[in-house]
């Protein structure tokens, strides 16, 4: 079974985008004064300007840069700000509308496809597909698998729940100990509509009772998840893995991608290369600044050490040629600054063209959607981003959503700050 292609409403008819500098996302050199033609939401031509073409509508993009719609492979769109008291007190509709705001902000930041790795239910995927709300095309893990007391387990020692676990209509956490638990949980998630299964092979940072160095799901259970998925169409596994040992368990168990990967040994990097495992380094979350007022000095020191180790780990993986996809862990930090990750990827060794490619085609490949998404090429859906920032000169400026002047999804203009459309 091929990966489910998340739909959005498309623009009917023929549309031509003229005059932008095109960076198509394949890694190819930019094309000045480009010409991109879409028919019924699908790109039929992308390249240098041609002679007159008969279309329904032309948009003049002179002075701008035209990029593929980006793919954020790691978000938590159900995470919205609020204390546990506020989360408990609100009506379900308030929460849903806040999530809808995050979906819109993510799309307006230039992310036309996102993979939510815990917390979002398929109702949002369906609403985006139906055009009921603006948002990225969605792939969902729905929930995450870990043992009792592991990264997926929200319960505090006294039995209470933290803020992120008291949101309305949150999916059941994937707390699994026995093989039977794994089988029941994975099959249940597939029945509910999961596009990927997320496992935690290490502990986490924000979860109440575990430590990053703890062992999460063991290799044998990752392998079991892999077998269950193979029986049902072969959806990918992605693994939250903070330690070297956790990455090895995930890769050997059959995970397609590693989230974070902040402590990779050179042998493990070689193992990832051998298996073609993709790294989603979520540098936006590794490097976010903590509030010194609410963080102890010991926690700040621990974090600085983790950041140094994490950056070194990701730099070595990239230098060795491990494929990278853009992921931000947005939700853990505010939604709508997703393309800040592009600048971070350049800081750890990617050339700007390669960062753009990792940010679009890299994610599309990881999601199994690269036949339809991830680059500006004939035959693909017209998911496009128009910016006034030259990404080859100042990619870090794309962090500000206001630098993204237009966004199109399947040829439909969903954001247009300059009234070009
Ligand atoms: Zn996450």
Automatic annotation (TrEMBL):
Q: Where's the Amidohydrolase-related domain?
A: 65-414
Q: Tell me one GO molecular function of this protein.
A: hydrolase activity, acting on carbon-nitrogen (but not peptide) bonds
Q: Does the keyword ATP-binding apply?
A: no
- Name the UniProt key words of this record, in alphabetical order: Hydrolase
- Keyword Ribosomal protein listed? The answer is no
Which Pfam families does its entry note? Answer: Amidohydro_1
InterPro entries recorded: Amidohydro-rel (IPR006680), Metal-dep_hydrolase_composite (IPR011059), Metal_Hydrolase (IPR032466), Metallo-dep_Hydrolase (IPR051781), OTAase-like (IPR057744)
PANTHER family according to UniProt: ALPHA-D-RIBOSE 1-METHYLPHOSPHONATE 5-TRIPHOSPHATE DIPHOSPHATASE
The protein in question is named: Imidazolonepropionase-like amidohydrolase
């Amino acid at each position: 079974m091929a990966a489910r292609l998340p739909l959005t409403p498309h623009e009917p008819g023929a549309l031509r985008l003229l005059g932008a500098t095109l960076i198509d996302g394949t890694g190819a050199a930019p094309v000045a004064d480009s010409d991109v033609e879409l028919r019924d939401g699908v790109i039929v031509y992308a390249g240098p300007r041609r002679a007159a073409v008969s279309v329904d509508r032309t948009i003049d993009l002179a002075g701008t840069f035209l990029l593929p719609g980006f793919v954020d492979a790691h978000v938590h769109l159900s995470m919205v700000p609020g204390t546990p008291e506020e989360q408990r007190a609100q009506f379900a509709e308030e929460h849903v509308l806040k999530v809808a705001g995050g979906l819109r902000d993510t799309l307006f930041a230039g992310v036309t496809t996102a993979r939510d790795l815990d917390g979002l239910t398929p109702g949002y995927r369906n609403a985006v597909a139906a055009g009921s709300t603006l948002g990225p095309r969605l792939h969902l893990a729905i929930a995450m698998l870990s043992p009792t007391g592991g990264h997926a387990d929200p319960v505090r020692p006294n039995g209470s729940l933290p803020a992120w676990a008291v949101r309305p209509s949150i999916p059941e956490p994937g707390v699994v100990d026995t093989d039977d638990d794994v089988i029941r949980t994975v099959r249940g998630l597939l029945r509910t509509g999961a596009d990927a299964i997320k496992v935690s092979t290490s502990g986490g940072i924000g979860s109440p009772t575990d430590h990053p160095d703890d062992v999460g799901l063991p290799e044998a259970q990752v392998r079991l998840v892999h077998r269950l998925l193979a029986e049902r169409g072969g959806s990918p596994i992605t693994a939250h893995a903070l330690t070297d040992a956790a990455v090895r368990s995930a890769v050997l168990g059959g995970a397609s991608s590693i989230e974070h990967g902040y402590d990779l040994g050179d042998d493990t990097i070689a193992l990832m290369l051998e298996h073609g495992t993709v790294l989603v380094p979520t540098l936006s979350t590794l490097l976010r600044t903590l509030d010194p007022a609410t963080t102890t000095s010991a926690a700040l020191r621990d974090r600085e050490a983790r950041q140094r180790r994490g950056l070194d780990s990701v730099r070595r993986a990239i230098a060795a040629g491990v494929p990278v996809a853009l992921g931000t862990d947005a939700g853990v930090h505010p939604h709508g600054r997703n393309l800040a990750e592009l600048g971070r990827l350049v800081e750890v060794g990617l050339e700007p063209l390669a960062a753009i490619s990792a940010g679009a085609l890299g994610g599309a490949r990881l999601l199994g959607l690269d036949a339809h998404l991830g680059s500006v090429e004939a035959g693909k859906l017209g998911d496009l981003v128009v910016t006034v920032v030259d990404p080859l000169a100042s990619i870090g400026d794309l962090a500000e959503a206001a630098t993204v002047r237009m966004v199109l999804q399947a040829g439909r203009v969903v954001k247009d700050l300059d009234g070009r459309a």
